């Protein structure tokens, strides 16, 4: 952005590219009418530039009876236009051309069929006072119908051409110069078109010089209010010819510099950008409401320019109601700085809960203890443990077939490899699901803080877009996460062997004692009895074996408890990482894309607006 600000002027090409990109970025997010308006400006610019840029289409527009046709005749030195007393007089636009060779396609595009090549003196229609052919080469002067017509077709024709021509000459008269019709519908929405607007106060012969001054001052004030401060304002009389020379030289200089077409397109780009910025701010818009709502200009019929398929009413109309010039163009809010990483933590936590991670983690610990006891418990009671199902397997999670053996602890393998079935983690309850929804909503809410409403809505939409897949995605993530629960620590085998050994010792003691009992029973002489202190060896072997077995079992339980806790922590980390990935893929990435989209939109809108503001 800083880089952009340093540039003072942005080329029309760059501005058009930026506008096209802004429209693409806004597509589906902002009011369709603003997007369509921007696209139509881009398309129109493409066509206008491909047509003759040596010709300048200048339109005389205004209310009925203001004297457009009179001025048209005066400037062209013809009587081509009918000047009538019945209103409205002019029903279709016509063109007068000065050195019009090559202007054909431009006039085709403007859909002007009545064309007249002005060659002073050679035409039957020629009267004195017009421009000679060499004076304004490239001028295409258009006499338009009345914009405030009782005929809808006239209004449509005016709107269509007002959008297309290179230079607009508004012909006002002392009676109607303050009419809302021209100020609200045209001049204010076209405030960006200062450089291609000329205002003429005609019929000054009807007023006293003092009244002319007052009238001009009042009109200037109105134009300032319209956002058109500084536009040329010329007082003329088509009847007496007063002031017409000034108008002539003004138009001649505009035609001579041949830049009006570009200034017009630049103004259109500005207006379309303003419309997008306005739509982006969401000002005054409600769901399903068009940015054009309330504008009757295009109501009930095709938009202006629809005939050419390129003239786009929306760009021009979208700012019409916004009073953009009165309040100043709407700024596009600076994109808020949002850290997706910061959002990931709470979201992952909530999704982990919903995905049953705590259940799985607890099962990992239990499973470890279960298998540990089965491997290292006191052999006579071990089988009881084996009868009980493994808590992890009960969840259909991550353990290899019982026959498979593992190496040392922690040699985790992707136990979930192969086709992934659903786990048997208890189905997401309504409470969990609502917590999941809340977490997603809160994430979207935080991510969209500070964003203008339409973009905030787009972020919320993006966060929810894959909500349906979220539950399955989480289940799959849990099912495929390597829990590291299958490893069989080496000490289990050692402890298991030790258990068998001490059992053998106890058994040998027991057998010995049984032998002694049998000999006693048979009254056989007592054999020699080795002792340890007072304790005979067989008793020591039996009691010691049993006691040692129990002590080993106890110690193993403690170790299993600690090991289970360690494995549970490891599994929890692995599961949270997997859930975190799901959170990213299904929620945060789409949200991030939307935020990036807005950031880029704000950038390109600034370029499209000329980046000077
Ligand atoms: N007094 C005076 N009358 C004018 C002047 N310009 C035009 N008129 C008269 O105003 C009436 C309307 O003039 P037009 O040139 O037909 O007006 P227009 O703007 O083309 O009107 P539409 O074609 O109906 O939109 C005619 O009777 C003209 O003679 C002027 O400068 N002074
Ligand atoms: Mg007329």
Radius of gyration: 44 Å
Task: Name the structural class.
Answer: alpha/beta
Biggest sheet layout: 7 strands, mixed
- The mean pLDDT is 83
- Major sheet: arrangement of strands: 3-2-4-1-5-6-7
Number of helices: 21
State the end-to-end distance. Answer: 12 Å
Segments where pLDDT lies below 50 for 5+ residues? 1-7, 284-315, 321-326, 401-419
Let me know the number of strands: 9
The SSE order reads: HHHEHEHEEHEHEHEHHHHHHHHHHHHEEH
Q: Please, what is the oligomeric state?
A: single chain
Helix content, binned percent = 40-55%
Any ligands, ions or cofactors bound here, and which?
Answer: guanosine-5'-triphosphate, magnesium ion
Beta-strand portion reads: 5-15%
Describe the structure using short key phrases.
6% strand; 613 residues; binds guanosine-5'-triphosphate; 7-stranded mixed sheet; binds magnesium ion
Walk me through the structure:
- This protein is 55% helix and 6% strand.
- It is of the alpha/beta class and 613 residues long.
- The strands form two sheets. Strands 3-2-4-1-5-6-7 form a seven-stranded mixed beta sheet, sandwiched between helices. Strands 8-9 form a two-stranded antiparallel ribbon.
- Helix 5 links the parallel strand 2 (94-97) and strand 3 (114-117).
- Helix 3 runs antiparallel to helix 10 (260-281).
- The termini are close together.
